[in-house]
Amino acid sequence: MDSEEEKKEDKGEHINLKVKDQDNAEVHFKVKMGTKFKKIFDAFLQRKSLQPGSVRFLFDGERVREDQTPQELDMEDGDSLDVMMEQVGGK
Amino acid sequence: MANSTTLQSWLCHSNNRMDDDTVLLDYKDLVRVRRSDLWRVCEHDGWINDIVMNFCFERHRERARDEQFRHLKGELIDPNVAHFLQHGDILDAAQLLKDLELDGSKLFCLPVNDETDLSLHVGGCHWSLLVHTPAVTADIPARWSHIDSMSHKNIPHAEKMAKQIAKGLLINEGRGSHFLSTAGDGDAGKENNNFEVELFSLEDTPQQKNGHDCGIFVIELACKIVDFGVEWEIDEDFDMHDIDARGWRKETYRDIEFLIVDDGEQFTA
């Protein structure tokens, strides 16, 4: 009984987040509501062998900062972050 | 406090400036300017990226907020958002337009980047500007205009962006349900594929004389247009030919330097 209740509580504070690449490849993360996005971003960058700072993460069109948490953005289970490339141009 | 020359060399120079991601300025918690971004600004041939553009737009909005009797007469759309609108799913684009409160009655400016390979994480060669201008009078209907500092290089990209946003706006007006059908055959599919947007590709626009300033033209023109308002295209007082890219680099560098010094944190150690 006890362990079941613990499990329930545990479920409550974790959510599943998708990080969606521009070509729709998804990476899934199970995170706590209070986890800073830095941890998620770093894990994503590592998984994709990317340099820090080379991509931007958007939630509902707003840039997400690494010191924010899913809680601050009122995120829910199953929400997704969009990864956008760094765009440059000269000529 | 360091004098301005040594400050500039400290800010812009490091062994590998292009890759130096040290954050120099966290502007209003909205844009983080890294050393490599500042380098793009102050080097005479630096290519402008989305962060610099994002910073300049945010700065322009902030300045307008600070001045009591001035307000922007249009919206500056950040490059990541424009990119998302162009390449994202049509339903996501429609929802985002709703969230941004953009509809057919608004004047808005969108930077267009030519990168189409979405698997890249850094990409693009050229920026141009797409403008949605609402109807001024019954005689002058709403239109999409394209300003390109390198003849009309970016037209296909601007067309795609305009088309995608026009569809999103129609969906939000409840008139675009046929775009939601993904079927390639049948009437809905046909209508979907045949949807066209008329793009006015402006002639007599300022042209860059080098291979590195297009982003500056986009920033300067977009800010000018939202200052001027919906009549920008038909009012002869609107002049788009006085853009000084070199001057812009100097001024923007100084502005960022000022904000960094003002912020102070970098120099407390």
TrEMBL record, chain A:
Translocase among keywords: no
Superkingdom in the source lineage: Eukaryota
Pfam families, A to Z: Rad60-SLD
Stored PROSITE patterns: UBIQUITIN_2
Keyword Nucleus included in the entry's annotation: yes
Subcellular location: Nucleus
Keywords for the protein's UniProt record, in alphabetical order: Nucleus, Ubl conjugation pathway
InterPro entries cross-referenced by the UniProt entry: Rad60/SUMO-like_dom, Ubiquitin-like_dom, Ubiquitin-like_domsf
Principal localisation: nucleus
GO CC annotations, alphabetized: nucleus
Record-annotated Ubiquitin-like domain positions: 13-90
Family classification: Belongs to the ubiquitin family. SUMO subfamily.
Protein name as catalogued: Small ubiquitin-related modifier
UniProtKB/TrEMBL annotation, chain B:
Domain Ubiquitin-like protease family profile: residue ranges: 31-225
Protein name per its UniProtKB record: Ubiquitin-like protease family profile domain-containing protein
Top-level taxon of origin: Eukaryota
Keyword annotations from UniProtKB, A to Z: Hydrolase, Protease, Thiol protease
Keyword Nucleotide-binding set for record: no
Pfam family, one: Peptidase_C48
Single biological process term from Gene Ontology: protein deneddylation
Source organism per UniProt: Bathycoccus prasinos
GO molecular function per UniProt: cysteine-type peptidase activity; deNEDDylase activity
PROSITE patterns in the record: ULP_PROTEASE (PS50600)
Family as reported in the entry's similarity comment: Belongs to the peptidase C48 family.
